Amino acid sequence: MLEIKDLHAEIAGKEILKGLNLRIKPGEVHAIMGPNGAGKSTLSNVLSGHPAYRVTSGSVIFHGKDLLSMPAEVRAREGLFMSFQYPVEIPGVSMTNFMRAAVNEQRKYRGLEALTSGEFLKMMKEKRGMVELDSKLANRSVNEGFSGGEKKRNEIFQMAMLEPSLAILDETDSGLDIDALRIVARGVNMLRSPERSSIVITHYQRLLDYIVPDIVDVLIDGKIVMSGTKELALKLEEKGYDWIKEQL
């Protein structure tokens, strides 16, 4: 599904990714862990097409296509979704109108007919229930007045509505209490399927108690330096990243 080869990227003239390699198969959940400044968020921003980041060399192939040549909106239509660490508010734009436009734009790209009002509202009610998102919140402007936990639930709700083939969750657990974490993780797990893959970026092993990854990748100084099973995350929790550096 996704193959990254020798990826180098920079922001404001500073190189962050320094030859990153990663391969994700359909249905796999990868947890990417690493210390601050290792390049985790840079990777997610590069994949999603953030204009502040510049790829200097390397390749990213998504469903057999050159991802790096696509504008950000085309990447989304192709099935890539990013859940932000700090979701932004969009005053004046209702969640209902926002999601209906997004869902129908994606359907149009795939050659499908737009959902009717009734079909869309039925779908919205079903997906909202997956993350226990209050109907009153769904009728507000996007993220306006939401708590941190509500914003994260809203991100997973959007993911459920769009049904991406690859979801990038950038520190979704940041700032969540245990109940919100459980609800968000349940929504992510309900969307797991043999056709859908996820990249879960996190500092902490606790998220992986709820979203169990197939593979844990350790990112240090712009490269994936070690990969393993969930047990690798447990060892990192116990020994820290200096232990990884000692192995290199």
Which consecutive residue ranges, at least 5 long each, have pLDDT under 50? none
Mean pLDDT: 86
Distance between the termini: 29 Å
Q: What share of residues is helical?
A: 25-40%
Q: Major beta sheet, specifics?
A: 6 strands, mixed
Number of helices: 9
Helix and strand string, N-terminal first?
EEEHEEHEEHHHEHEHEEEHH
Number of strands: 12
Main sheet: strand order: 6-9-10-3-11-12
What percentage of amino acids are in beta strands? 25-35%
Class computed from helices, strands and strand pairing? alpha/beta
Shape: globular
- Quaternary state of this entry equals single chain
What does the radius of gyration come to?
Answer: 18 Å
Note the topology.
Blueprint: E1 2-11, E2 14-24, E3 29-33, H1 40-48, E4 53-62, E5 65-66, H2 72-77, E6 80-83, E7 90-94, H3 95-109, H4 117-130, H5 135-138, E8 141-142, H6 148-162, E9 166-170, H7 178-190, E10 197-201, E11 215-220, E12 223-228, H8 230-239, H9 241-247
